[in-house]
Specification:
The structure holds two protein chains of two kinds. Chain A is α/β, with parallel strands linked by helices. Helix content of chain A is about 35%, strand content about 25%. Chain A contains 17 helices and 20 strands. The two termini of chain A are about 40 Å apart. In chain A, about 45% of the residues are buried. Chain B is mostly helical. Chain B has a single domain, classed as ABC transporter involved in vitamin B12 uptake, BtuC (Orthogonal Bundle). The chains are: A alpha/beta, B mainly alpha.
């Protein structure tokens, strides 16, 4: 029998960065196939290629033994491929029936509502869902919305169902229920692909597992007879850690104790986190995305108030200080979202470079800003940080990701910073820019700064850090000295605390 | 007193219909996610075109009305090109069009200024029109008043009981979801802006040909802005827009009544009333609606597809 799906040598790059590097994937009818990997391993990119959202640079795909070039989402849908995205594509004030109808064209309104409602009722019966077609999306829970997405995709005739991190928004009980449903679908002959980074889930509910790492397929194994440790090893790989000099650490600079913080939706994501970073040390915080890193970085920046806990700098409490005061004390940030927090897109390179020190008198007085000083200092910084192809008056919007990040670094590392909080500093950058960013962080450390590196890129953390802390569900679950054991870090990251 | 009230109610539709048509047109626009602040400008151009075509065609009312609709189409197509095709800022583009319309009609409007027109006349329904009270209120209006009833019903039915209407609302609420479902965002938005614009143009034409029966520079006097506010008051629902239009039309109809009976109320206070009520109504809506404004989720946001690289 032909494979339900076979993807061969799929290549896809974004801005010169390889997201998929000759990835392979093969799945059969009647199975639940787990697709496992760290954040950024290429799982979602590979599936986006399959469902027509991304056009691959190279590679071949065949469905049921027939080769296809998938032209777009509607073509994929016609081939029976349906994807439930991590962010649901539902229209909030619409009813369930209307949402299903939107995705599955009907001829007339009245008949359409009837047909669709009937179909929803039939499918929910089969799958054991309780769905009221007349209920509005904004009145039902996230778990119910997910069921609507599944029903929507199945009603479109999908036989190849892709679920992207489906359990990340569910409670444990809801997740168990969903996974049972998925198995039932597979038993009825569908091919279900489950994208996840949760080992336990895959081992308990998938028939086979494909592991991806940095855009490549590592292996496809049967779930039965494979241990969590094996999978964790495949996920984190064995890349060698380069042997640059470790930092000479001094006294404790940054001290975080028992910190808790909530996300905007009220969910507590940082839960009793404590860590200390010494002067001249890079503390790498490893962890799967969404375990509280974002909120921690925001609390340290001073843009999010913590619920409880303290932040100390050189022994004095700075928990409640305004961002401006923190900056004056030498706390600098390299935020994860450059375009939102790091730089003003429409302003020039020079204005962005000068922006944080305008109040300090470096560029003239409050009433009279010396453009000449700004120009001179910015030019010097552009040279020091090797930001090519940009001038003082270039609009920041026009910079490449790498140059924009170097500009952020140039500004934040100016003077002698006491603490640097760098969150995913190389996200989306090419290899050369990555190396430059790493060099600058190391240099800052050697000057005596305490660097807190928050990153989802395990290689980066292992290469740079003098101490590796692992964050899982909002707390530090382990700290390892240099050189940190990669597999131990992987287990801590992926373990269920 | 009874006569005063009957006259007042009988005069209300003439003032209410322009606001009603304009706000219904805006609801079509905004339900598709396009924030339309140029209603004042489109109404002005509609009013001007209505009068010009009416006079130049030798007082043919149907042509005047069509002229107003056509003018609304043209101006809103320009607006749609700016905000849908070019994805410019909708607020800025809308306000620019208002000033453009005001300037343009002022510049070329002189030959037609202050020439009284007959325009829409009351329909005489014979016996029906002579029924006391009801005859005057219900059976002696002009054609457009009667026509506006099916127009509103049709728009409501289209938006809430038809597949294309559902797609249009999906585009305004969550364009990403609509795009994923295969709906063309640009087509829907362009269509919504132009269709809505035609109604707003018609509203302007009716204002000139039925209410004022004359073209004067900047004669819309902020009614386009009131229509914008009405849409918020109506929470983007056609039915409630009708109620709101009647309320404001009622107030406008009251002004000449009060002056006619010689009550000593300062003229400027009267003229200010509609705007004062607008402020009060918006404040009220803001205070009462705890569940959000009811505004379409993507209102005012240009849609750019996630990079499909």
């Amino acid at each position: 029998m032909a494979h339900a799906l076979q993807m061969t040598d799929i290549v896809k790059s974004f801005d010169g960065r390889m997201a998929l590097d000759r990835a392979e994937f093969c799945a059969d009818w009647g199975e639940v196939h787990g697709l496992l990997g760290e954040n950024g391993a290429g799982k979602t990119s590979l599936m986006n290629v399959l469902c027509g959202l991304y056009r691959p640079d190279a590679g071949r795909m065949s469905i049921d033994g027939v080769e296809h070039r998938i032209e777009g989402p509607s073509h994929a849908r016609a081939l029976g491929i349906g994807m439930v995205h991590q962010h649901f594509k539902l229209v909030q004030p619409f009813t369930i029936a209307e949402n299903v109808m939107l995705a599955n064209p009907q001829k007339s309104w009245r008949k359409g509502v009837a047909t669709v409602s009937e179909g929803i009722a039939r499918l929910s019966d089969e799958l054991g869902f309780e769905i009221d077609p007349a209920a509005r999306i904004d009145r039902i829970s996230v778990a119910e919305q997910q069921r609507v997405e599944i029903v929507k995709v199945l009603m479109g005739g999908a036989r190849l169902l892709i679920l992207d991190e489906p359990t990340s928004v569910l409670t444990d009980e809801e997740a168990a229920r969903l996974l049972r449903t998925i198995q039932a679908l597979a038993r009825r002959g569908a091919c279900v692909i489950l994208i996840t980074h949760k080992l336990r889930e895959v081992l308990a509910h998938a028939d086979r597992v494909t592991v991806m790492r940095s855009g490549r397929t590592v292996a496809t194994v049967a779930a039965r007879g494979t241990s969590a440790a094996d999978l964790a090893r495949m996920m984190v790989g064995d890349a060698p850690v380069d042997d640059t000099e470790p930092g000479q650490s001094g006294p404790v600079r940054l001290e975080i104790s028992d910190l808790t913080a909530r996300r905007d939706d009220g969910v507590s994501t940082v839960r009793g986190l404590s860590l200390t970073v010494r002067s001249g040390q890079i503390y790498g915080l490893a962890g799967v995305g969404g375990n509280g890193q974002t909120e921690l970085a925001e609390v340290l920046m001073g843009v999010r108030a913590p619920e409880t806990g303290h932040i100390g700098l050189d022994g004095s409490d700075i928990t409640a200080l305004h961002p401006k005061r923190r900056r004056a004390l030498g706390i600098r940030n390299v935020p994860a979202d450059r375009s939102a927090y790091g730089l003003a897109q429409e302003l020039s390179v020079g204005d962005n470079y000068a922006s944080t020190r305008l109040g300090s008198g470096s560029f003239g007085t409050l009433a009279w800003v010396s453009r000449r000083t700004i120009g001179a200092q910015t030019s010097a910084a552009l040279k020091d940080f090797e930001i090519q192809g940009a001038a003082v008056d270039t609009s920041v919007r026009l910079l490449s990701g790498g140059n924009a990040q170097k500009l952020v670094l140039a500004r934040e590392l100016h003077g002698e910073p006491a603490v640097i909080v760098a969150h995913s500093p190389t996200h989306g950058l090419d290899v050369r820019a990555c190396a430059a960013v790493h060099d600058h962080l190391r240099a800052a450390r050697d000057f005596g700064a305490a660097v807190l590196l928050i990153s989802e890129d395990l290689d980066e953390v292992l290469n740079l850090s003098d101490v590796v802390g692992v964050i899982n569900r909002g707390a530090i679950v382990g700290e390892l000295g240099r050189p940190a054991d990669r597999h131990r870090v992987g287990e801590l990251m992926l373990g269920h605390a | 007193m009874v006569e005063f009230i009957v006259n007042w109610i009988a005069f209300t539709p003439v003032f209410a219909v322009p606001l009603m048509l304009a706000s219904i047109g805006l609801i079509i626009n905004e339900r598709a996610g396009v924030m339309n602040l140029c209603a004042e400008g489109i109404m002005l151009v509609g009013a001007f075109a209505g009068v010009v075509v009416y006079i130049e065609s030798g007082n043919i009312l149907a042509l005047g009305t069509l002229g107003a609709i056509a003018a609304g189409l043209v101006v809103s197509a320009l607006f749609a090109f700016m905000v849908v095709t070019m994805r410019l800022n909708q607020v800025v583009a809308g306000i620019a069009i208002v000033f453009f319309a005001s300037g343009l009609t002022g510049l070329i409007g002189n030959p037609w200024t202050e020439r009284a027109v007959e325009g829409f006349t009351k329909v005489d329904m014979g016996v029906l029109s002579t029924i006391p009270v009801l005859g005057k209120i219900v059976f002696s209006q002009d054609l457009m008043v009667y026509a506006s009833v099916p127009i509103v019903y049709f728009v409501w039915r289209f938006l809430h009981r038809s597949i294309p209407g559902m797609k249009l609302r999906a585009v305004g609420e969550n364009p990403q979801a609509a795009d994923a479902a295969g709906v063309s965002i640009e087509f829907m938005r362009f269509g919504a802006v132009v269709t809505g614009g035609a109604l707003v143009g018609l509203a302007g034409g009716y204002l000139a040909l039925a209410a004022s029966k004359i073209w004067v520079e900047d004669m819309t006097h902020g009614r386009g802005w009131i229509a914008v506010a009405l849409v918020i008051f109506a929470r983007w629902r056609p039915g409630r827009a009708v109620l709101g239009a009647l309320l404001f039309g009622g107030i406008e109809a009251l002004i000449p009544r009060i002056q006619a009976v010689g009550l000593a109320v300062p003229q400027y206070l009267l003229l200010m009333m509609p705007y004062l009520v607008t402020l009060a109504v918006l404040t009220y809506v803001g205070l009462v609606s705890r569940t959000g404004s009811g505004a379409p989720g993507a209102l005012g946001l240009p849609y750019v597809r996630e990079d499909r690289r």
